Each structure stands twice: as structure tokens, then as C-alpha cells.
Amino acid sequence: MGAGGPRRGVGPPDGGWGWVVLxxxxxxxxxxxxxxxxxxxxxxxxxxDFGAGYSDTAWVSSIMLAMLxxxxxxxxxxxxxxxxxxxxxxxxxxxxxxxxxxxFARHLLELYLTAGVLTGLGxxxxxQPSLIMLGLYFERxxxxxxxxxxxxxxxxxxxxxxxxxxxxxxFGWRGGFLLFGGLLLHCCACGAVxxxxxxxxxxxxxxxxxxxxxxxxxxxxxxxGARRFLREAPPSGRARRRLLDVAVCTDRAFVVYVVTxxxxxxxxxxxxxxxxxxxxxxxxxxxxxxxxLSIVGFVDIVxxxxxxxxxxxxxLRLHVPYLFSLALLANGLTDLGxxxxxxxxxxxxxxxxxxxxxxxxxxxxxxxLMAMVGAPRFPSALGLVLLVEAVAVLIGPPSAGRxxxxxxxxxxxxxxxxxxxxxxxxxxxxxxxCCLHHQSHSPEAVAGTATEGAASDIxxxxxxxxxxxxxxxxxxxxxxxxxxMLSPRARSVEPEGEAEPGPGPESV
Length: 508
Known about the structure:
The chain is 74% helix and 0% strand. Helix 5 runs antiparallel to helix 6 and helix 7 packs antiparallel against helix 14 (286-311). The radius of gyration is 24 Å and the shape is globular. It is mainly alpha-helical.
């Protein structure tokens, strides 16, 4: 293997074609998070042509975001059934078709159904599979990969908004929608490069067992590949297909993460939405007020990959959940401390601190979920998390807007949003600690420690033989307990049982 190949006998390649997958994930993430906000530059023209108010027009972006988050379980089911690449190709076509059809809309309802529902669904069918595929290609460098992919959101937001303004001035909103639809066809190109990871990275099943899965669906092949990569295959050696693994909800760590994301989504996006109007009410000129969002974007672009690289350090990799909770706490305290900021200098300082903490949250949120549930359960877990987050997104920002209209006071909104995000950070830290404490004192953990030597012998024997899956008692490396409890001695012993055998002539 080349420099981008795996360092051990079994595992994701952590490079090679994975960098192409990372670039595609960067583009898809940029479209998914940046596109619904960039469409807002057309709102004034839509209000004029359709004779509608701002709130009615803004529902186009709201529906798009609701589809992006709320269709997570649907995307999980489709990925499990058909695989990542076909789902992304169809999603790119749907997203482009939605904007193209929207350019011919005569009523707002038609915009809701095309630009809102159809394009939002297409973006959802691209976003979730790209994250799943990224987790299959990266393990050792996964925090850095997640940080680089997450940087697509501020980069594309900074580029799509000015582009939309130029298209609006030259071609009108209909021409702008039509060209944006053509731009979304790049999602199909991103889906085309999402080939499943190579299957020759070490000891894989023999040809006589490989034929048993030859007739499975592409989603089964990718799910089985994830299990082989991370050595989490079931004892029977056959991947049991679950279109949506709701059993992940019984995992205490996952429940903690879901509650954290719900609390976070209630207040995380509110300051960025209200920032420009807040600055204008404080007497800041319009141009300077609009530049505040650019400051947040520039800092965010730097913070996401930097935080991903930081989380990938060996000493911090085992404590990523706590780093995530620290980022949430910092973001919440930034909102609380800046509620009384009225001068332009204070607002610039707020934007720098907010962009830094916001970028940290964006870089770590999916890395924490991958580490908690593992790659085989990540598609289902991600779909359920996005569904819960959709509810919070539909509650938080609209409620903040209504409170501003009723109270004419932005300070209270900043206090509420900061309190919600800070509470999410505290809950994440306390919940993670309690889960680890419970797992370390559970009878299963004690029994697993007592039989660790026997399990290691079984693993060595199977690796030297025909590469059967690990026994059921072996700890999943993707679980939160393994993430925290993995010792240097265990890491030094692990390659000895995996690096010995190579792919023999009978291997696939």
C-alpha cells in the first residue's frame, strides 16, 4: 500500500481514495448547510412578485431545513437498503430538480413544494450518506476529516450568498433559481465518487464465505464492510440487516447525546440569525452590521479544521465528548456575556468568540456520535438525531423571533439562547461521566475484564486461521466505554493479533 494506506492489517484506509471522499463530503456539507441560508437573498424579490410578507416567504428556507433534518430516518433506511452512492445520486437529481421547477413557480405554495420540500429532501439524501461514507474511510484521522468536511458550511455560505446576489441582479430570481439548480447537480458528481471502501485491506473472509453475501443489496455490502473494518461483526458472521436500528435508543450514551443536541439546537442558531438586526438597533450602520456575519464565517472556517486536528491528538482523542461539552459551554457563555454588547468593538469581539466556539461545535458534533455508537449503528443513530434536532430547530429560532416582536428586547433572547446552549454543555459532561461510571461498575464490564485474555487468544487464533469475526464478548471499539478505557498497553498489543496474517490466495 502507499502512504495513504492503513497502518494495520484491518481498518479504514485513513487516506488514499478517502481524500476524494472527504472533498466530496466538504462540498455536500457546504450545500446542505449553506444553501438554505443563501436562498434568503431572493426573498425581497419573491415578496414583491407574490405580494407576500417576509414570514411567508421565509418559510421556503424553513421547509428546506425541516426536510434536511426531519427526513434523517428516511435517509438511514434508504442507505441501509441501497447503499450511499445510489442514494446520493438520486438526492442530487432531486435537489437540482426542485430549484429548476421552482424557477417556474406562480404561487408560494409551488415554491414550498419545489424549493422547500423537493430540494430539502435532495440535500438530506446527500448530507447523511456522505457522513456515513466518511466514517468508513477514516478512523485514526477521523476527527481531522470531520473538521475539514464541516468547514464546507462556512465556506459555501460565504460564497453562495454573494453569488446569489449577482445572479439576482443579472437574471432575476427565476434565472437565479434555475442556475442554482444547475449548481446543485454537483451533488451527483459528489455521489459518484462515493464508492465503498476497498475490501483487500487485510484478513477478509474466504471466497467460499464471500459468495454467501454476493446477492445482498449494496447497503448490506457497505454495512458488512463497516463491520469488518471496525471488527464489530456479529458472532454468526452474517450481517443482520436492520433498515433502522432503533435499538440504539437503549444506549445511555446515545440518549445523553440526543438530549444534548435538542437543548443545543434550541439556542445555538438564534444569535447568528438575530445578530444583524441586533447591531442595527444598536446604531451600527447597515454595511458594518452585515460585515459581522462575515467575521463569524471567517473565524468559523479556521476553527473547524483546527479543532478537528486538535481532537485527533492521542491525548485528546479519548476525551472528545468532554471537549464537545466544553465547546458548547464556551458558546453559551459567549452569548450570556455579550447580551449587553452595544458598541461595534464589543460586537466584533462577540463575533470572534462566537465563531470560534461555533466552529468547535460544528467540527465535533458528528465525531462524538461516531465514537459513541460505532460505524455499523451510525446511519440509524444519525437519522434519529437529525429528526430530534429538526423539532428543536422548528421551536427555537421561530420562538425567538416571536419574543423579539413581542418584547422589543434582544438581551433576553441572548440570555435564553446562551442558557440553553450552556445547559447542553453541562448536561453532556455530566451525562458522559455518569455513563462511564455506570459501565465501568456494571457486571458486564467486570466479566469482560476477567475474560479479556481469553478473548485475545481467540482473536489471535481466528486471525491466523480463516479470519472469522470476533466473538460476541469482545468490546466494540466504537463504544463510549472503549473510547475512554482503552489503555496504552491494549493499543500496543492490538496490532500483534491483526498484523500477522496477510490476504492469502483464498482471500477476496
